[in-house]
């Protein structure tokens, strides 16, 4: 089962992006796992994602990004972005991820991390990238996980542990032979 | 007496073996169903069934079938695949308690 996990680099006041840091930690802990860091830009992020997807051909794609909230947020859907200039014209305004939501939430919480489901990815580059992944069929299973800022009880290892649990829930679902298409 | 015993035996055989669910907990879980079936079980997407007001036992059975892969549906197999027994019971209790939407 091939999986790809992406995070974002620094932007604005966030000189350290918890998503990129945790993805790097997860990749270091799992040598076979494909990881990528995307630039925080509405046009460049989808392009970098598509490059990574073309290289890895993932069956499971977990996108991650930073949100200023002290818990993990598993995003279930994305709205069509206004800022992505290459957005396909014929794609839906709202697209839904596919993930074993309840199992992923339980798995993240089992690591001791607070987590919740969300249907508002925030209308920034995170949502643009999520929608781009869904609109172009980057992988059969796709979800977006928002990660809390580092500090205040969160370090990269803790975020990575929860991120890994979220990923494993999807890998477990697919490994049992239930494939979305 | 024999008839009562047989009825009880048949009911026991037909029951899916799950405890009665908690509708309030099911409401919280139903968020992950809302994209297709609506939070209250009234379908919001074409070619998706409304599940409000269906029998709780039937809903539980179907979710268990999706979970095991016995019933095949690309999205439901993934979403139900990670549900625990109590979560299935809770979802079934919530959707069963909703009013059947007007057709």
TrEMBL record, chain A:
<dbReference type="GO" id="GO:0016920">
    <property type="term" value="F:pyroglutamyl-peptidase activity"/>
</dbReference>
<dbReference type="GO" id="GO:0005829">
    <property type="term" value="C:cytosol"/>
</dbReference>
<dbReference type="InterPro" id="IPR000816">
    <property type="entry name" value="Peptidase_C15"/>
</dbReference>
<keyword id="KW-0645">Protease</keyword>
<protein>
    <recommendedName>
        <fullName>Pyrrolidone-carboxylate peptidase</fullName>
    </recommendedName>
</protein>
<dbReference type="InterPro" id="IPR036440">
    <property type="entry name" value="Peptidase_C15-like_sf"/>
</dbReference>
<dbReference type="Pfam" id="PF01470">
    <property type="entry name" value="Peptidase_C15"/>
</dbReference>
<keyword id="KW-0963">Cytoplasm</keyword>
<dbReference type="InterPro" id="IPR016125">
    <property type="entry name" value="Peptidase_C15-like"/>
</dbReference>
<keyword id="KW-0378">Hydrolase</keyword>
<comment type="similarity">
    <text>Belongs to the peptidase C15 family.</text>
</comment>
<dbReference type="GO" id="GO:0006508">
    <property type="term" value="P:proteolysis"/>
</dbReference>
<keyword id="KW-0788">Thiol protease</keyword>
Automatic annotation (TrEMBL), chain B:
<dbReference type="InterPro" id="IPR009056">
    <property type="entry name" value="Cyt_c-like_dom"/>
</dbReference>
<dbReference type="Pfam" id="PF00034">
    <property type="entry name" value="Cytochrom_C"/>
</dbReference>
<dbReference type="GO" id="GO:0009055">
    <property type="term" value="F:electron transfer activity"/>
</dbReference>
<dbReference type="GO" id="GO:0046872">
    <property type="term" value="F:metal ion binding"/>
</dbReference>
<dbReference type="InterPro" id="IPR050597">
    <property type="entry name" value="Cytochrome_c_Oxidase_Subunit"/>
</dbReference>
<feature type="domain" description="Cytochrome c">
    <location>
        <begin position="21"/>
        <end position="99"/>
    </location>
</feature>
<dbReference type="GO" id="GO:0020037">
    <property type="term" value="F:heme binding"/>
</dbReference>
<keyword id="KW-0249">Electron transport</keyword>
<keyword id="KW-0732">Signal</keyword>
<feature type="signal peptide">
    <location>
        <begin position="1"/>
        <end position="19"/>
    </location>
</feature>
<keyword id="KW-0349">Heme</keyword>
<keyword id="KW-0408">Iron</keyword>
<dbReference type="InterPro" id="IPR036909">
    <property type="entry name" value="Cyt_c-like_dom_sf"/>
</dbReference>
<keyword id="KW-0813">Transport</keyword>
<keyword id="KW-0479">Metal-binding</keyword>
<protein>
    <submittedName>
        <fullName>Cytochrome c553</fullName>
    </submittedName>
</protein>
């Amino acid at each position: 089962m091939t999986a790809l996990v992406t995070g974002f680099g620094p932007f604005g006041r966030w000189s350290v992006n918890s998503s990129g840091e945790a993805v790097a930690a997860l990749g270091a802990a799992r040598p076979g796992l494909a990881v990528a860091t995307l630039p925080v830009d509405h046009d460049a992020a989808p392009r970098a994602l598509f490059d990574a997807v073309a290289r890895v051909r993932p069956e499971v794609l977990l996108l991650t990004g930073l949100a200023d909230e002290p818990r993990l947020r598993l995003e279930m859907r994305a709205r069509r972005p206004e800022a992505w200039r290459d957005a396909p014209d014929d794609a839906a305004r709202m697209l839904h991820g596919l993930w074993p939501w309840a199992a992923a939430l339980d798995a993240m919480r089992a690591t001791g991390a607070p987590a919740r489901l969300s249907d508002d990815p925030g209308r920034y580059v995170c949502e643009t990238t999520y929608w781009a992944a869904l609109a172009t069929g980057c992988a059969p299973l796709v979800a977006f996980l928002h990660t809390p800022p580092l500090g205040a009880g969160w370090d990269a290892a803790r975020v990575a542990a929860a991120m890994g649990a979220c990923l494993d829930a999807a890998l477990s679902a697919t490994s049992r032979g239930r494939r979305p298409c | 007496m024999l008839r009562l015993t047989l009825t009880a035996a048949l009911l026991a055989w037909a029951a899916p073996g799950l405890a009665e669910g908690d509708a309030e907990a099911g409401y919280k879980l139903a968020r992950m169903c809302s994209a297709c079936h609506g939070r209250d079980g009234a379908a919001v997407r074409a070619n998706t069934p409304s599940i409000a007001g269906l029998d709780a036992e039937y809903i539980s059975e179907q979710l268990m079938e999706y979970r095991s892969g016995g019933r095949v549906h690309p999205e439901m197999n993934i979403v139900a695949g990670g549900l625990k027994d109590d979560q299935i019971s809770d979802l079934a209790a919530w959707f069963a308690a909703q009013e059947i939407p007007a057709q």
